[in-house]
TrEMBL record:
It comes from Nocardia pulmonis. Keywords: Kinase, Transferase. InterPro entries: DAP_DH_C, NAD(P)-bd_dom_sf. Gene3D superfamilies: NAD(P)-binding Rossmann-like Domain. It comes from the Bacteria. GO terms for molecular function: kinase activity. Residues 146-348 form the 2,4-diaminopentanoate dehydrogenase C-terminal domain. This is Diacylglycerol kinase.
Length: 354
């Protein structure tokens, strides 16, 4: 069976998603939405960096793409600073009967216990009204801290604690808005960026903790957050900007699932703009890795290294996009509603072996 897909946005993740859609023989690209006139009218192949034209031209006309009634919209538009608009976009697709696979908003990967029912119900209602499904995922939050750790837990006799970590040097991560506006790199250490405002970390990554708890049948008493930051002693050049000496250049945060006064589940990020910063914090294997540690019987430690042409940051973006594309057939065939990783069957890189 062939599934007709519209790619929604061609930014950091979207352009890699386009490449992945074209590579899948079970998928047919039928439309591409772009946010501005500078990309409108260009072939999808050009936007994705492919040599062979697809014949599909990008457009800013959202209504025309919805009118195509594709089987699925792959939504990778930036949502961190436009949450209400992004959620409305998703609901519009669902009400129209279009399935959606999305990289954002990240808290929708498992909103139960994190969002109140009045925030979840309109999305579920829209999905049921249109007979469509929504699945939000990626690599983190995503398969690096849902399927990956859950696979390892199946080899345990006893589990005392699980720690899922992203340990990365972001010096090559080409997304200035995320780096500087959302994460606060290059800012004064006494200023709180969007990501570190009260409750934001537990909103975004608390879903990871809640999903692991649900999968492992763990009753949590609470989910907490903490963070610390380190400044750079000398100026750094990152994503086309200068990060001045004395400004924030390393961030470590944790979201913890607590049970009976004990930490049982941890989601941790250790992000540096230079490998020499914060030497006492956890260090990656290679230049960057996703780490799963399970304390119990037996104890496991799994380090997932990644790179694309030597660039681990680019590899992470490709991994985000490809994971979403891989899931399209399963999401289209799933029951209507808001899906989580716990609802999907095993999805693989079917047809990608060259």
């Amino acid at each position: 069976m062939t599934y007709r897909v519209v790619q929604w946005s061609t930014g950091n993740v979207g352009r890699w998603a386009l490449r992945s859609i074209v590579a899948r023989r079970e998928l047919e690209l039928v439309g591409v939405w772009v946010s501005g006139p500078e990309k409108a009218g260009r072939d999808a192949a050009e936007l994705a960096g492919l040599d062979e034209p697809t014949g599909i031209l990008a457009t800013t006309d959202a209504d025309a793409l919805i009118a195509l009634r594709p089987d699925c919209v792959l939504y990778t538009a930036m949502a961190d600073d436009r949450l209400a608009e992004a959620v409305e976009d998703l609901q519009t697709f669902l009400r129209t009967g279009i399935n959606v696979v999305s990289s954002s908003p990240v808290f929708l990967q498992f909103p139960y216990g994190t969002l109140p029912p009045e925030a979840i119900d309109p999305i579920v209602d829209a999905a049921r009204a249109g007979g469509a499904s929504l699945w939000v995922n990626g690599i983190d939050p995503g398969w690096a801290n849902d399927w990956l750790p859950l696979l390892v837990t199946s080899g345990c006799e006893r589990i005392d604690r699980i720690v899922c970590s992203e340990i990365m040097d972001y010096c090559t991560y080409d997304n200035p808005k995320v780096l500087f506006d959302i994460m606060g790199f290059g800012g004064a250490p006494d200023e709180l960026p969007m990501l570190l405002q009260p409750g934001v970390l537990t909103l975004a990554w608390g879903s990871v903790i809640r999903q692991l708890a649900a999968a492992l049948d763990v009753e949590l008493d609470s989910v907490t957050q903490n963070f610390e930051r380190i400044t750079t002693p000398e100026a750094l050049r990152v994503a086309g900007r200068t990060v001045a000496a004395g400004t924030t250049a390393a961030l470590r945060f944790q979201i913890r699932g607590m049970r009976a006064g004990r930490t049982v589940l941890v989601l941790e990020h250790v992000t540096r703009l230079h490998p020499d910063l914060a030497p006492d914090w956890p260090q990656p294997t290679g230049k960057g890795c996703y780490r799963v540690e399970i304390e119990g019987e037996p104890t496991y430690r799994l380090d997932l290294q990644l790179h694309s042409g030597g660039d681990h940051a680019r590899a992470g973006v490709i991994g985000t996009a490809a994971r979403l594309v891989s899931a399209i057939p399963a999401v289209v065939e799933a029951r209507p509603g808001l899906l989580t990783a716990l609802d999907l069957p095993l999805t693989t890189g079917r047809g990608l072996v060259s």
